[in-house]
Amino acid sequence: MQSRIVPAAVFVLVLTVAAQPLAGQQAAAPSTASQTASQGEAEGQAGARPRRPQPKPVNLKVLPKDLTREEVVKIMRGYAGALGVECSFCHAVNAQTHKLDFPSDAKDDKTIARTMIAMTRTINEQYMTQVHDPDAMPEDKHVTCGTCHRGHSMPEHFVPPPEQHHHPPGGAAPDQEPQ
Questions:
Q1: pTM over 0.85
Q2: Can you give the residue range of the structural domain that contains 139?
Q3: In sequence order, which residues have a C-beta less than 8 Å from that of residue 115 and are 6 or more positions away?
Q4: Can you say how many angstroms the Cα of residue 10 is from the centroid of all Cα atoms in its chain?
Q5: I need a surface site. Which of 1, 20, 25, 95 has the fewest CB within 10 A?
Protein backbone atom coordinates (compact mmCIF):
# COMPACT_ATOMS: atom_id res chain seq x y z
CA MET A 1 0.00 0.00 0.00
CA GLN A 2 2.88 2.35 0.82
CA SER A 3 4.28 1.72 -2.61
CA ARG A 4 1.19 3.33 -4.14
CA ILE A 5 1.05 6.29 -1.75
CA VAL A 6 4.59 7.46 -2.39
CA PRO A 7 4.20 7.72 -6.21
CA ALA A 8 0.80 9.34 -5.72
CA ALA A 9 2.30 11.87 -3.28
CA VAL A 10 5.15 12.58 -5.68
CA PHE A 11 2.64 13.02 -8.51
CA VAL A 12 0.56 15.49 -6.45
CA LEU A 13 3.72 17.35 -5.42
CA VAL A 14 4.88 17.60 -9.04
CA LEU A 15 1.44 18.87 -10.14
CA THR A 16 1.40 21.41 -7.34
CA VAL A 17 4.85 22.73 -8.21
CA ALA A 18 4.12 22.73 -11.94
CA ALA A 19 0.79 24.51 -11.44
CA GLN A 20 2.25 27.34 -9.33
CA PRO A 21 3.60 29.35 -12.26
CA LEU A 22 0.26 28.99 -14.04
CA ALA A 23 -1.68 30.04 -10.96
CA GLY A 24 0.74 32.91 -10.47
CA GLN A 25 0.21 34.02 -14.05
CA GLN A 26 -3.55 33.83 -13.69
CA ALA A 27 -3.43 35.75 -10.44
CA ALA A 28 -1.11 38.30 -11.96
CA ALA A 29 -3.32 38.92 -14.96
CA PRO A 30 -6.07 40.78 -13.04
CA SER A 31 -3.55 42.83 -11.09
CA THR A 32 -1.73 43.64 -14.33
CA ALA A 33 -5.03 44.70 -15.87
CA SER A 34 -5.86 46.81 -12.84
CA GLN A 35 -2.35 48.27 -12.88
CA THR A 36 -2.81 49.12 -16.56
CA ALA A 37 -6.15 50.78 -15.78
CA SER A 38 -4.59 52.61 -12.83
CA GLN A 39 -1.69 53.72 -15.02
CA GLY A 40 -4.17 55.00 -17.61
CA GLU A 41 -5.93 57.00 -14.91
CA ALA A 42 -2.64 58.20 -13.50
CA GLU A 43 -1.48 59.38 -16.92
CA GLY A 44 -4.31 61.85 -17.03
CA GLN A 45 -3.48 63.07 -13.52
CA ALA A 46 0.18 62.56 -12.71
CA GLY A 47 1.63 61.86 -16.16
CA ALA A 48 2.96 58.39 -15.29
CA ARG A 49 4.00 57.82 -18.87
CA PRO A 50 5.39 60.82 -20.73
CA ARG A 51 3.04 61.97 -23.46
CA ARG A 52 3.89 64.02 -26.47
CA PRO A 53 3.12 67.65 -25.64
CA GLN A 54 -0.13 68.83 -27.19
CA PRO A 55 0.05 71.95 -29.32
CA LYS A 56 -1.27 75.14 -27.75
CA PRO A 57 -4.51 76.35 -29.35
CA VAL A 58 -4.00 78.95 -32.03
CA ASN A 59 -6.30 81.32 -33.92
CA LEU A 60 -8.57 81.91 -30.93
CA LYS A 61 -10.51 85.06 -31.73
CA VAL A 62 -13.42 85.10 -29.27
CA LEU A 63 -12.19 82.64 -26.65
CA PRO A 64 -9.45 83.71 -24.23
CA LYS A 65 -6.03 83.12 -25.76
CA ASP A 66 -4.57 81.63 -22.58
CA LEU A 67 -6.86 78.56 -22.57
CA THR A 68 -5.21 75.15 -22.53
CA ARG A 69 -5.95 72.60 -25.22
CA GLU A 70 -8.04 70.60 -22.72
CA GLU A 71 -10.11 73.68 -21.83
CA VAL A 72 -10.76 74.48 -25.49
CA VAL A 73 -11.77 70.88 -26.20
CA LYS A 74 -14.20 70.94 -23.25
CA ILE A 75 -15.76 74.20 -24.46
CA MET A 76 -16.00 72.94 -28.05
CA ARG A 77 -17.67 69.71 -26.93
CA GLY A 78 -20.24 71.84 -25.11
CA TYR A 79 -20.94 73.81 -28.30
CA ALA A 80 -21.16 70.60 -30.35
CA GLY A 81 -23.63 69.10 -27.88
CA ALA A 82 -25.77 72.23 -27.76
CA LEU A 83 -26.03 72.20 -31.57
CA GLY A 84 -26.12 68.43 -32.05
CA VAL A 85 -23.16 68.57 -34.45
CA GLU A 86 -19.66 67.16 -34.81
CA CYS A 87 -16.40 69.11 -35.04
CA SER A 88 -16.50 69.05 -38.85
CA PHE A 89 -19.60 71.29 -38.77
CA CYS A 90 -17.35 74.32 -38.13
CA HIS A 91 -13.84 73.00 -38.80
CA ALA A 92 -12.50 72.35 -42.31
CA VAL A 93 -10.70 69.18 -43.32
CA ASN A 94 -7.11 69.56 -44.51
CA ALA A 95 -7.01 68.19 -48.07
CA GLN A 96 -3.49 66.76 -47.64
CA THR A 97 -3.79 65.12 -44.23
CA HIS A 98 -7.55 64.41 -44.34
CA LYS A 99 -7.68 65.55 -40.71
CA LEU A 100 -9.54 68.50 -39.23
CA ASP A 101 -7.60 71.74 -39.51
CA PHE A 102 -8.78 73.43 -36.32
CA PRO A 103 -6.97 76.78 -36.86
CA SER A 104 -8.36 77.17 -40.39
CA ASP A 105 -11.03 79.79 -41.05
CA ALA A 106 -12.08 78.16 -44.34
CA LYS A 107 -15.64 77.35 -43.26
CA ASP A 108 -18.26 80.08 -42.98
CA ASP A 109 -19.90 78.18 -40.10
CA LYS A 110 -16.83 78.90 -37.96
CA THR A 111 -17.28 82.63 -38.54
CA ILE A 112 -20.97 82.32 -37.71
CA ALA A 113 -20.12 80.39 -34.54
CA ARG A 114 -17.73 83.15 -33.44
CA THR A 115 -20.47 85.73 -33.98
CA MET A 116 -22.92 83.66 -31.96
CA ILE A 117 -20.40 83.15 -29.14
CA ALA A 118 -19.84 86.92 -28.98
CA MET A 119 -23.62 87.46 -29.05
CA THR A 120 -24.28 85.13 -26.10
CA ARG A 121 -21.43 86.75 -24.16
CA THR A 122 -22.93 90.20 -24.77
CA ILE A 123 -26.42 89.05 -23.79
CA ASN A 124 -25.09 87.53 -20.57
CA GLU A 125 -22.81 90.42 -19.61
CA GLN A 126 -24.96 93.38 -20.64
CA TYR A 127 -28.55 92.19 -20.40
CA MET A 128 -28.93 89.14 -18.17
CA THR A 129 -27.04 90.93 -15.39
CA GLN A 130 -29.89 93.48 -15.40
CA VAL A 131 -32.51 90.82 -14.59
CA HIS A 132 -33.36 91.17 -10.92
CA ASP A 133 -35.94 88.43 -10.59
CA PRO A 134 -35.88 87.04 -7.04
CA ASP A 135 -37.45 83.77 -8.25
CA ALA A 136 -34.78 83.17 -10.91
CA MET A 137 -31.81 80.98 -10.13
CA PRO A 138 -28.39 82.11 -11.47
CA GLU A 139 -28.57 79.48 -14.23
CA ASP A 140 -31.95 80.93 -15.26
CA LYS A 141 -30.19 84.22 -15.97
CA HIS A 142 -27.59 82.77 -18.34
CA VAL A 143 -27.98 82.27 -22.09
CA THR A 144 -26.08 79.46 -23.85
CA CYS A 145 -26.06 78.07 -27.38
CA GLY A 146 -28.50 75.43 -26.16
CA THR A 147 -30.99 78.08 -25.06
CA CYS A 148 -32.04 78.54 -28.69
CA HIS A 149 -30.51 75.62 -30.58
CA ARG A 150 -31.66 72.84 -28.20
CA GLY A 151 -29.55 70.21 -29.93
CA HIS A 152 -30.21 71.36 -33.51
CA SER A 153 -27.71 72.97 -35.88
CA MET A 154 -30.31 75.63 -36.69
CA PRO A 155 -32.68 76.96 -34.02
CA GLU A 156 -36.19 75.71 -34.61
CA HIS A 157 -38.75 78.39 -35.30
CA PHE A 158 -41.08 78.99 -32.41
CA VAL A 159 -44.73 78.85 -33.33
CA PRO A 160 -46.88 79.98 -30.43
CA PRO A 161 -49.98 77.95 -29.72
CA PRO A 162 -53.28 79.44 -30.89
CA GLU A 163 -54.40 82.22 -28.64
CA GLN A 164 -56.69 80.99 -25.92
CA HIS A 165 -58.88 83.28 -23.91
CA HIS A 166 -59.27 82.37 -20.30
CA HIS A 167 -62.35 83.72 -18.58
CA PRO A 168 -62.26 84.52 -14.90
CA PRO A 169 -64.24 82.01 -12.86
CA GLY A 170 -67.88 83.14 -12.61
CA GLY A 171 -67.06 86.30 -14.52
CA ALA A 172 -68.30 87.54 -17.84
CA ALA A 173 -66.50 86.88 -21.07
CA PRO A 174 -64.45 89.90 -22.26
CA ASP A 175 -66.84 90.59 -25.15
CA GLN A 176 -69.96 90.58 -22.95
CA GLU A 177 -71.27 93.45 -20.92
CA PRO A 178 -71.51 92.85 -17.19
CA GLN A 179 -75.12 92.80 -15.95
A1: no
A2: 69-149
A3: none
A4: 61
A5: 1
